[in-house]
Structure formats: C-alpha cells, structure tokens
Amino acid sequence: SLNRIEEIFKEVELDDSGTDTLKENAEKEIEFKNVSFAYPNSEKSVLKNLNLTLRKGERLAVVGKNGSGKTTFVKLLCRLYDPVEGEILFNGKNIKEYDYKEYLNLFSVVFQDFKLLALPLAQNISGGEAYDKLKVLEVLKNTGLDLSKFKNAEETYLYKNFDDEGVNISGGEGQKIAIARALYKDAPLIILDEPTAALDPIAEAEIYSKFDGLVKNKTSLYISHRLSSCKFCSHILVFDAGLIVQEGSHEELLAKDGLYSKLWNAQAQYYQENSRRLDIYVLSY
Ligand code: ADP
Question: What is the distance in A from the centroid of ligand 1 to the CA of 40?
C-alpha cells in the first residue's frame, strides 16, 4: 500500500527518477543478476549473489526456513529496496530505469503483515473510496469469504471504530480479504508472501486450490515455509541463509538428498496428522 511505500521512503532513499514506460512491455521477464543485499544500517548480508529468472505465466515458489531471506527477495523484486550489489532486470533493462509508480503497478502483493483498515469491506479491497461493486463481490466470492456475518455485505465496516455494526474478523478472514484486494488490483504479476501462515491446513488447501485457478495466466510467485503449499508450482527455489541452495520441480527436489527433502520430511509428519481431514476436504471440493 501507499503508506507502506511512504514508510519505506523515509527509511531509504530510493532513486525514483526513472522515466521509461513499460506499458507495451508489460508481463514479460524479470531477472536477478548477482543480487546481494543488506538492510540499511546493518552489516549482515541477507541475500547473497542471487541469480534467477521469472518468466511470463510462470508459477514460481520460494521456500525456506524463517529468516532465510524470502520476504526480502520480494521487497527487492517490488523495488521497496534496491540491491546493494548486482541488478534486477525487467525485459533486459535495469528496473531503476522505469517509471517507479508504473513499475510498482505491475505487482499485486499480499504481504504477510498486510493491514486492514476500519473502513467498509469494499474500500479495503479497492484501496480507495471508489469501487466497482460487482468486481468486489466477485473477488470476495472467489476467495471463499463467508459474507453471512457482514450485515450490509460489501458496505459493512471492518471493526467497530466507526460503526457499531462493524465486524471483527478472524486471521483467516483477514487473509481472504487481503487476497481479494490483490485479485481486485488485477496486476500481471501476483505475489503471495506466506498469506496462509495463520491458517490451518484445511483453510490453506482451500485458498491455494482456488488461487491456482484464479491467477490463470498471470505470472505468480508463492513464498512459503510450508512446502506442501508450493507443490503445484512449476519451479521451486529453496532459500537458505540468503542463498539459493536448490531449484527444480517438487518431484526433482524430493528425489535429491538436500534441504528440500529434509524440510519436506520434517513437515510430512504434521501433514500426515491432518491428512485425513485434508482428504475429506479435497473430495468435497
Ligand atoms: P523470511 O521471509 O525467509 O522469513 P526475511 O527476508 O524476512 O526472511 O529476513 C531475512 C533476514 O533479514 C533475517 O535475518 C531478518 O532478521 C533480517 N531482516 C528482515 N527485515 C529487516 C529489516 N527491516 N532490517 C534489518 N534486518 C531485517
């Protein structure tokens, strides 16, 4: 959101003087070339010599333990920070050369620490006072948000700050609203940064199974420490301490003796415990 961007502008001085326009080029290829990064006022290298390509229409997953640099990678991709070393190219040209706002508009991002406002549900989704009612209702339906407790449908306020009939929402409902916001923006690249971390496995399976269909031919990026969330992605990058330590498809990575299969096996137990519930869910979906 804009607030977020303004907050970060206070923290770092980004050079937003780029003027190149990218409309006709939209939706192509993004490349990280030898990208390294440390946060301002920190010595610690958080991303180390990243090399990767995100192609049009691809579903890319980034997995790894907490603190391995996944969110920082997204922040660089969305130009909330610039690399300390190396460069990020969009269609072969450094992203700094593009008009900053236009570049940002390429992305719909659901950050894990998204914020909802004490405003009507629809405004939380459109990001402003104006909204297209039919589109709001459509994206809400697609996320599977149960509207029965929202007395005035999309006009219902979130929280009770400004309206006694406002509703308090659960973590899972909040995440569905945040995802609806990303879908409403309808940008060519969509990023889910661990949006389901607060959900139980059933709710998570529900969101991911729907999302895969919703993003259709958009380029999409999924960030998660839960490996099962990313099984449907065509390409998976495994982050560890700021490095890409493995990459490939789920099957390829599982067949190798590396961090991916180690994390997978560690998480498998958790999923086995829930698998009966998951099977039932998948059958009834
Ligand atoms: P992940 O998304 O994989 O959990 P992050 O990208 O959030 O990992 O964090 C990577 C590393 O960067 C961690 O060591 C974290 O403590 C550090 N870090 C994250 N945000 C900041 C910040 N704003 N300033 C300094 N260090 C940060």
Answer: 12
Beta carbons of 15 and 94 less than 8 angstroms apart: no
Report the greatest alpha carbon distance in the chain: 56
What angle in degrees, to the nearest 10, is found between the helix axes of 133-143 and 171-185?
130
Measuring CA to CA, which residue among 145, 247, 245, 229 is closest to residue 193? Answer: 229
State the 10-residue block means of pLDDT for the chain, 285 residues long: 49 73 70 97 95 91 91 93 96 93 89 86 94 95 90 95 93 87 90 69 67 79 78 88 95 94 81 51 36
**Closest listed residue to residue 202, CA positions, set 132, 274, 256, 111:** 274
Measured CA angle at 70 (ends 274, 141), to 5 deg: 55
| C-alpha to C-alpha distance for 53 and 62, rounded to whole angstroms | 12
Write the residue with the smallest CA distance to atom 19 of ligand 1.
72
Could you tell me the pTM of the whole model? 0.82
Q: Which residue's alpha carbon is nearest to atom 6 within ligand 1?
A: 69
DSSP codes joined into one string, 53-107: EE-TT-EEEEE--TTSSHHHHHHHHTTSS--SEEEEEETTEEGGGB-HHHHHTTE
- The closest-lying atom of ligand 1 relative to the alpha carbon of residue 239 is 3
Ligand 1 pocket test, pick from 4, 46, 111, 222 with the greatest ligand atom count within 8 Å of Cβ, gives 46
The verdict on the CB of residue 46 being under 6 Å from ligand 1 is: yes
Alpha helix ranges (H) inside 115-241:
121-126, 133-143, 171-185, 201-215
- C-alpha 285/C-alpha 282 separation (Å) is 5
- Residue 68 Cβ < 6 Å to ligand 1: yes
